[in-house]
Each structure stands twice: as C-alpha cells, then as structure tokens.
Specification:
11 strands; alpha/beta; four-stranded antiparallel sheet
C-alpha cells in the first residue's frame, strides 16, 4: 500500500499523536486482548505505535506493521520502543515465522483497503500470521450512519498547527476527504487526501468466511455506540 501523506510525510507524522488527541478508544482493545487471553499481538497499521507500546509495557510480545516509514520512525523513537518488533510493510509482507495470538486493526484501519482484492489479501496475510485458534479484532464505521456528512468543516489546532477537513467525493461505498494542515510558524499548508471503504456487515461476514475466519461477534464500540462495528473473528484451530 501507498500510505496517505498524513502518515507518510515526516513533518505531519511527527505531529500526528497531538492531532489524534486522547486515545481512549484503545482501552477497549486492551480489554479485548485480556478477554481473549492473548500473550502476543499483531498491530496491523500500527502507525506511531501508541497501542503497540501500551501492550508491550504490559509484557506482551507485540509486532507492529505499517507501510508508512515516517510513522514507524516516530514509533521507534519513543521510550521502550525496543520492546516491539517493528515491520515496515503491510499484512501481505509479514515474515513467515509469526504465530500470533491476536491481530488488531484499530482506528478504522480496515477501511483503507478500498478494493475487494486488497481487503482479501490483507485478511489472508493476517490469517497466515495467526496461530490456529488465534483471534482477529477490528473496527469499521457503520455505512448507514453516513458519518462523512459531519466531517466537512471540522477543525482543530495545536500551538504548531491548524487543520480542517473537506469532503472531496462520495461514491458509495467509497468516501474521499482532504485534510489540510497550516503550520502557524510560517503559514505553510500541507494536504493529505484519504479514501475509505464503508463495508456493510453482510460484506464483512462474507469476506471473513472467504478468508477462512470464523465470526465470533459484532459489537458496538463502547466510546461510539451505534456508529462503529467492532468485529471479533478467529482462525479455526
């Protein structure tokens, strides 16, 4: 995959954690790791490594994979980053020696795979990386909520940066939007276009079955009830 500039541009990646703000959504993933009794975790699309480092600090064996070298550079520079095995790539380029208890895709990573082929290849790569009986957990927005209708005009700022969103195109199930970032020190503006795929529950269930997964549950995200599906599946033992 070619990552979006928000993740791949060194100047933006260095500020991403401050843009992203409070990651209370990750508490739910920590709870799911405990619920499934996992001792090893694969974080697909790990970005700047927030969840990977939280889990590693608890003594879990963690592998973080991401196609954005700039985001991985931020992750590797954080305290205790040597506790995590970082891989520059994606789920289709994982080493064959993995036998992971649980794989996660947080932050709607599952929606960046816009084609059926890319999504199928990602699920196949994760399936191969899991041990028999291992688990997959990911979140995705419910298409019927039409969350994109509220994105345009959303703004935020830090001392260094001001940012806002513009909706570029809606061709369901694909939605394209643009992040614009203005640096307060010199007025430089950088932009990053992103396209997301909104899959229905039926589409998700069919794709998981095709990839050899068993579906365990589809839940609400505790911090966004009614807006997100949290999908729990497993590789049969």
């Amino acid at each position: 995959m070619t990552p979006d500039p928000i993740f791949a541009h060194p100047r933006l990646a260095a500020l991403y954690d401050r843009i992203d703000g409070d990651r209370a959504d990750l508490d739910h993933y920590e709870a799911l790791v405990d619920e499934r009794g996992a001792r090893s975790v694969l974080d697909v699309g790990c970005g700047t490594g927030v969840l990977a480092l939280r889990l590693a600090a608890r003594g879990l064996a963690v592998v973080g994979v991401d196609p954005a070298a700039a985001s991985l550079a931020v992750a590797r520079a954080k305290p205790d980053a040597d506790r995590v095995r970082w891989i520059h790539g994606d789920a289709t380029t994982l080493p064959p020696d993995l036998a992971i208890d649980l794989a996660v895709m947080t932050g709607n990573v599952a929606q960046v795979f816009t084609t059926d082929e890319a999504w199928a290849a990602t699920l196949a790569g994760i399936h191969d990386a899991l041990r028999p009986g291992g688990h997959l957990v990911f979140e995705t927005r419910r298409p019927e909520v039409r969350a994109w209708e509220g994105w345009a005009g959303t703004r935020g700022r830090t001392d260094e940066l001001e940012w806002w969103y513009d909706l570029v195109a809606v061709a369901e199930p694909l939605v394209t939007f643009r992040w614009s970032f203005r640096f307060t020190s010199n007025g430089v503006v950088l932009t990053s276009d992103s396209t997301l795929r909104f899959r229905t529950r039926a589409e998700l269930e069919a794709s998981l079955a095709e990839a050899g997964f068993g579906l365990d549950d589809v839940r609400d995200a505790p911090d966004r009830p009614g807006q997100e599906m949290v999908v729990l599946a497993h590789r049969p033992g």
